[in-house]
Protein 1
Amino acid sequence: MTDAAQASPWQGTVALVLGSSTGGVGQHVSSLVRGLLANGCQVLVCGPAATDEHFGFAAAGAEFVQVEIPANPGPQDSGAIRALRRALTGREVGVVHAHGLRAAFVAALARPTAPLVVTWHNAVLARGLRGSASALVERIVARSAALTLGASEDLVARAESLGARPARLGAVAAPTMGAPKRSRAAVRAEFRVAPDVPLIVSVGRLHPQKRYDLLLEAAARWRELDPAPVTVIAGSGPSYMLLAQRASELRVKVHLLGHRTDVPDLLGAADLAVITSDWEARQLFAQEALHAGLPLVTTAVGGLPGLVGDAAELIAPGDVDALDRAVREMLADPAKRADYAERARRQAASWPTEQDTVVDVLRAYAAVTGVPAGQG
């Protein structure tokens, strides 16, 4: 047993539950799997088969049980509830830890005998009937959890307003990013970007929440700059065709790259990172950009201001004029970019590490089970 395991605040069997994910939630659960195993816990992961294929939970040493929890609620939830209940039956699980509202809703209705810890990763932005249904899900989840952890302060406040007791901020670290495998010149050559041409990068799911339509609108204005920057957006999602059509209409220098596994390479080749989302908690790409020392322009929404501090240029959401102005000023001022690069590295060094995050959830498990340190 390692020294970390001997000093662990809690040891036992934990069931991690998640729904469909290709991004931050799955990355976080993957990090927890590795950390919990290293700290002497037994780990069961319950989620869609595609998440195990993408994140490798079983390959890391966890037991994986397929529970198909889709992104949107529907009649199929009854099957997911039964599948999760079967997965938990007959196992001595000390804590069930659900990630995201969809997984937490299924876990709450499965009524596990072990205490339920829920991490809220995302806000509900839907309106109308869908928004009302989501609000009901939020309320059920908030009142079912023995402990609620929020990835940002606004999520904690939302959970508390719906009856979550207790609720607190939960540490969520970005997984350690590897070094670039290709040179700056090689990556820029892929997109035919000359050495003196600015390269702007954004990474995220192609979803309306990310507001990549604003980035395209701003990019259309940047054609008048000399040299005109090139923008690349890495990610897949339901908005791909709409964004591709809009980019064609605007005749912008924007590449929609689809899913990429070489984000460190993209960051190493870029001059500026941009986030245009309507809402984020502790967005993975924001953390990756600052870890890489890349100047960042981001919307001041959700948990982003607290995450980046003074290490990024903050703009109002939905404001294409502000986005245009902030990017122009960054590109025109190398000294300003260098200053923000230094701030980025300093801010990233202040964030919790993956081990800090694991210790935080172990303390949470100890709190809800009442089990003293080193027992489980």
Note: The longest strand covers residues 13-18.
Protein 2
Amino acid sequence: MSDFKKLEDFDFNGKRVLVRVDLNVPVADGKVTDNTRIVRLGPTMSHIIEHGGTPVLLSHFGRPKGKVNPEFSLRFIVNTIKNAFGQPVEFVETDWSDVSAAKSKLDAGAKGTIYVMENTRFHPGEEANDDELATRMASLGDIYLNDAFSAAHRAHASTAAIAHKLPSGAGRAMETELSALQKGLGQPQKPVIAIVGGAKVSTKIDLLENLVTKVEALVIGGGMANTFLHAQGIDIGKSLCEKDLAETARRIYDKAADANCAIILPIDGVVAWHFEAGAPNRTYGVEAMDQTGMMLDVGDRSIERIKGAIDEAKTLIWNGPLGAFELDPFGKGTIAIAHYAAKRTNDGKLVSVAGGGDTVAALAKAKVVNDFSYVSTAGGAFLEWMEGKPLPGVEALKN
């Protein structure tokens, strides 16, 4: 984190602080259904206000494709922000082609108020990382903070170009995320074990190829495991499998062998004949699968094997469930391992970092989100970080 300025490095008194946040939260019937990302901004907001600054929030919401679309207005999020921070919050009508009217409103504003600008994606220059748009954005404030790790994998005007226009740093949520990720892969306590699950190998090839060079053990679960089992010549029946990626799986195996990384696959699986909750099921060893069924979860022997691997590790990174956890009873493996990792973490024996939408949902189902060392709500950014790719929104903050 020494590459970045933090909150303590700035004098906020009398300054307007542009804070890139992620207000792209789930909404149903006009109401925010999960305010986790908003609540995590609290420490940054409090610090700025307590030190005499005025926070001005920049965020995208949805995919309006560079056009003004009332359906994607941030006006609807204002009440949720008010409830989260207990501060006066005002929405600022913003024409990103000419910010003079918005600037006048901010100039006339009151201290201690949080201002929310309109959706940055209402202008095509946002996603194009347009320099002129970034200059207009920068004219609204004195300091720029990025507190949206979840948007850091995008090189956009409000995440990348703007950081070069003003004194810039990381907000508290960004700082917390980056320091947790450092403990996960940057400078972890070894040995490190990674759990990677989910449906498809095709979406996680870069991730797997990076991880086998960084970790001591890699557990592969979910539909992805079937592709690896198939590559080893195991008949996995009607299980979800990308048979055309067998060669890729073998290449990843070879790379892991060269790097002394152990790949851990299921040795047994819970098989059902219909993909639905409560479907009749039976556990088979992977070498003796029922060819008419599909594997929807790891079996008890696999669970014990994964627990044993976790026992040998000091750091765990997790992305993706081990089975079809959203359908009972096929979440048993994921939930059992989540509970085990949480216990090891609480006992002080494991640093556990998890992220990605399905992973967060699975940990929430297991009721252990607060028992992990860090759970990232950033989907794409977390994945790209695990893939070892530089994140434009983070790179732009480096001194």
Note: Residues 172-186 form the longest helix (15 residues).
Protein 3
Amino acid sequence: MTGSRKNRKVDGFMKKAKKWKEEFEQLRNTILDCEELTEEVKWMHPCYTFENKNVVLIHGFKDYCALLFHKGALLKDPHGILIQQTENVQAARQIRFTNLQEIIEMESILKDYIHEAIEVEKAGLEVNLKKTEEYSIPEELQTTFDEIPELKAAFEALTPGRQRAYILYFSKAKQSKTRESRIEKYKQNILDGKGLND
């Protein structure tokens, strides 16, 4: 199978890895054992694809390393090991590890999850992402819209992704005062048709 060949860029990634080196190698071998997947580097991490669709990615953080399933929300998860990184992550799910032994002990379970993730791709399944209008608009933003109708019009003219980014950013603030100051700060950006990071 061509899918089980090692990619030289991933070899380079493995050589440079200071933390989680053994864990990454073990995860890589587990994934490559499943064949069918093509090894690539995306977002500076080893990523495994099926017919150019992202299936699973290996990445490491300070306290853990993880397998990230791009459509993890669709996996059955009989062992209850899939983790949603933050509440705003809709499709992806992680399985986290803190040492090599955990990965070795879970190898057959991991392969089951990887095979299921491949089947999800083969079946062409998609995660139903929440639409922008399903996010609740913070009341401070609603109040500002009522006061400044042109701001509401400018906001509604933004792309759904930009609207979502603003809604999530404004909503994240715990205090009403902070939400108000965030809205105030970005009012002109919205009127100019700009996104949060433009």
Note: Helices lie at 8-16, 21-33, 100-105, 107-122, 139-147, 149-157, 160-172, 176-191.
